[in-house]
Write the structure tokens for this entry.
Amino acid sequence: MENGRPLLSVRGLSHSFRTAEGSRPVLANTQFDIRPQEFVCVVGPSGCGKTTLLRLIAGLIEPSSGEILFKGRRLEEPQPEIAVIFQDYSRALLPWRTVAGNVALALEARNVPRNEHAARVDALLRQLGLAGHANHFPAQLSGGLQQRVQIARCLALDPELLLMDEPFGSLDAMTRQTLQDEVSRLLSVNKSTVLFVTHDLEEAIYLGDRVIALEANPGRIVEIIEIKLPRPRNQLTTREDQRFLEYRHRVFELIERGQK
Amino acid sequence: MIDWRRLGRGLVLPILFLALWELLRAAGVLPYETLSQPSLIARATLSALADGTLLYATWQTLEAATLGWAIAGAVAVLAGVLLGLFPPLARMTSLSVEALRPIPSVALIPLSLLVFGFGLRMEVAVVVFAVFWPVLIVTSSGVRGIEPNLLEVGRALKLSVARRIWKLVLPAALPSIAVGLRLGAGIAIVVAVTVEIATNPWGLGYGMINASQSLRADLMFAQLLWIGVVGWGLNVALLRIERRWLAWFWSAREAAR
């Protein structure tokens, strides 16, 4: 994992929002790399610019300064190889399309021939445990299932980099743990590269190979921590692991210090 | 499916009303010449149906209403989508829209008569003007109200602008467009009948004013009640189409309950 050039390089990235009083910096001089097949978590308090960082990498907004290199090329607009999973699943799904139709949207966007849609959608729905829901509308599903639909849609793109913006943030605790395990297993089987934004530092440590801790106002990297916990991880044993608790302690202190 | 029990319960009041009307007429309380009576109205309806005049007049009124509705609907939906998508365009046209919209459509009858003469075209023109505005406004507000997250999903998926409109904007605005068109259908019939009463010598409106002027109260009531039935049937039909095409919308509403 250590060798090879990075898939994504963030170089001196800063971003400010224009407000009535001038410009307010949200992200200052951010710098890090993501290597292929790595699961990188970004954690920080609200206002640390973690969602802005994700939107910049998604190409949805342009940085005020600095640059993002994707596979060595400067990124200036949304890339077909980068998929985004939005936090608010209920507003990211097309309510008028069925579950299968929502997943197929990604295939339509990539101009996949129509006669291949059914088989590929079926396979994805099965992978995400949605097989019985193909013909349901999103409004008929629970939040956890809706988020699975959005994940299926992104995986249909076969992305080289998956950006996840607090994907489990609005789910109840049980559903969140189930999805954490299922999604991280699926992504490691797929050898996906992931940038995962969350405000839950335990979630960040539990899922990540590395955790980028941000402090707020303006958002700035305090430290990047390598998480050397064995995989596959387990909700009980991993979270009780002495090293897990040490990481938790350390990240907590870092973020606490950053808030002062 | 028609809910017969509900329909039966709904019919209780009208039947009582008709019975009371018939009774008061038979007792001589109500004047025969102006208010007629249900049995005579029923007979007039049957004979007008039998000799084809009622159906022919209905066809004339519906033809003008439907044509005007379809033309206005198509143009207004297209214009509404454009205004909804491009705020500068909306700002540029808002003054004109606000100035034209309050003109009562029936005030255009003299102008339309001057331009087109009697006949189908003058009636259609007035209907078009009446239906255009509500559909335009409902459509453009529906397009403007589209969930911004959905547009962001479209950008992240790298959908072209045309596909974003076709796959995201139009379906999202469809419930609003459907409401606008259903509203427009009601307006189309009202305006078509009004034009016929005021000027155009055909259709149900003309039939009524004609019956009224020749003191045929029974025939006038026959057509009046007939228009009610036709309008009700049209609304039921449109609602049914809407429920079939917008199944997702209705199921989402049910789920939200």
Observations:
- The two ends of chain A are 35 Å apart (CA to CA).
- The interface with chain B takes residues 58, 60, 78, 80, 83-84, 86, 88, 91-92, 94-98, 105-106, 108-109, 137, 139-140, 157 of chain A (CB under 8 Å).
- The first helix of chain A runs from residue 50 to 58.
